[in-house]
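### Sample
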Amino acid sequence: MGFIFSKSMDQNLKKQQEFMLLNAQLQLERQILMQNQMREKQMAMQIAWSREFLKYYGTFFSLAVVGLTAGAIKRKKPALVIPIVPLGFVCAYQYDMGYGTLIRRMKDGAEQIIENESNLLELPQGMPTFELIEKARKAQRKFFIDK
């Protein structure tokens, strides 16, 4: 009788463990999807911001080019067009960020770093462990209790 009872409990325990594993897997998949959606939304906002900024900066840059060029011609001082060069670099960067291939190049560069230079990505003092986090939590709690 005891053997049948323990066999039934073992089967229930195995079913419960399988259910818990499946539930943990489902929860992890949901977290990964949610984090990826948040990442995509943040990237979309960054690209949209770059495009919007480019509209305003492009207007400023155009007016600056016309004004500086006209001033250089009128006053016969070619040095007045020098600020156009750095302003042009900023404008080109913003265009590349909003409409060009900058993000694709950054992604390719990140993949190269992950594949070939992963040692640069290591955290100082290694990956945090449960023990280290608990130790810090207890130390912080003690610090606040002592005050």
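The chain is about 85% helix and 0% strand. This sample (Plasminogen receptor (KT)) is used throughout the tutorial notebook.
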